[in-house]
Design brief:
171 residues; alpha/beta; Nucleotidyltransferase, domain 5; 5-stranded mixed sheet; 6 helices; 22% strand
């Protein structure tokens, strides 16, 4: 008998200014987007207040959807060390929340995510958005419109979640 209990997967594109997230349900191979969004922190607030905003949203998502697995984009930076440090701290906060909620974590580099979603590890944002929408299939119109209007961080989080679905959990 095939297991009909859905697996809930959380996709995360961690960031300090913008923290993208997406929640997928997988039942008998059928992938459904439950929700997605992006936490945009207030640049006028202190670093710790911004961290608290992201932590609060993440805990609400974990309590509401109760994912068993999370995919997270690995840290990648080429120029701004200050931004990289803040993102690294957000990643640490995120990992701590996920571990506290007993969620298994898979990390993926940007090229792996792009390759998994588009077939091209160097795909641009337009290709990611197009392929994410194609792969989500038949979702309610309101949610499809939301995805179409979301910023790139949300699209990336959906891509991370799709990659997590297609990647066996490491032991």
């Amino acid at each position: 008998m095939v297991n009909s209990v859905p697996s809930i997967i959380l996709g995360i594109d961690p960031g300090y200014d913008r923290f993208g997230w997406a929640v997928l349900s997988v039942t008998q191979g059928q992938v459904v987007l439950l929700n997605c969004g992006c936490v945009e922190t207030d640049r006028k607030k202190s670093r710790l207040e911004r961290y608290a905003q992201i932590q609060q949203t993440l805990k609400q998502l974990l309590d509401r959807y109760r994912p068993t697995k999370a995919g997270m984009e690995q840290l990648f930076f080429s120029k701004n060390v200050t931004t990289a440090l803040a993102v690294a701290e957000i990643r640490g906060l995120t990992i701590a929340c996920l571990l506290e909620h007993q969620v298994s974590i898979e990390e993926f580099n940007p090229g792996t995510i792009k390759s998994c979603v588009t077939g091209n590890g160097r795909a641009d944002k337009t290709a990611m958005r197009k392929m994410v929408l194609l792969q989500l299939g038949n979702i309610p119109l309101a949610l499809r419109q939301k995805v179409e209007q979301e910023i790139d961080d949300t699209i990336d989080a959906i891509g991370v979640a799709l990659t997590a679905v297609r990647t066996p959990t490491s032991v």
